[in-house]
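Posting here for the record, re: uracil.
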Amino acid sequence: MSDNLTIVDHPLIQHKLTILRDKTTSTAQFRQVIREVAFVLGCEVTQDLKLKEVEIETPIEKMTAPYLEGKKLCFVSILRAGNGLLDGLLDLIPSARVGHVGIYRDHETLEAHRYYFKTPDKLGERLVVLVDPMLATGNTAIDAANELKKAGAKAMKFLCLVAAPEGVEKFSAAHPDVPIITAALDRQLNDVGYIMPGLGDAGDRIYGTK
Ligand code: URA
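Prediction output follows.
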């Protein structure tokens, strides 16, 4: 498998992912748990942010302490399921900027069609974290990353919850410079592009639609 891929193998994430996979999990619980998982995945995706030393004073004494250098961050959610992860990421980093990309998959061809694209300025100065719970065929993520690069993005990561080997291969081939961070690498896609075993349609699970 691609060396671009990091699987975050933390017991809390694996436990919560099992709840998300379970088809008896309610919409309310699904929404809450995906937010919690995103918080932990957010720690992983930002683990190489640079620190600087600052002088502070604790109630006891002065000290030099680490502080974020201030690298600008931008989360870009692929609508609509990306928003389920976005909430947890913003709990962790409330100051991050947010972009949205609207892409739908043609259910016949599985091709990606873009209908919305809005991002903050100075993308080239930011760490851009593209967010979608499911990396399935890879078509949507590839298209979103293409557009972000056209808009100026340079340092980018792709964050998902569950990836299919087919999607990882295709995305890594198209964007070898974009690391993929996921909580699980599943077995394969089925013939209508769903991940097996997966968790079903992430958007439907988050919003209680069918
Ligand atoms: N999108 C989803 O929501 N689920 C899948 O299994 C594949 C794509």
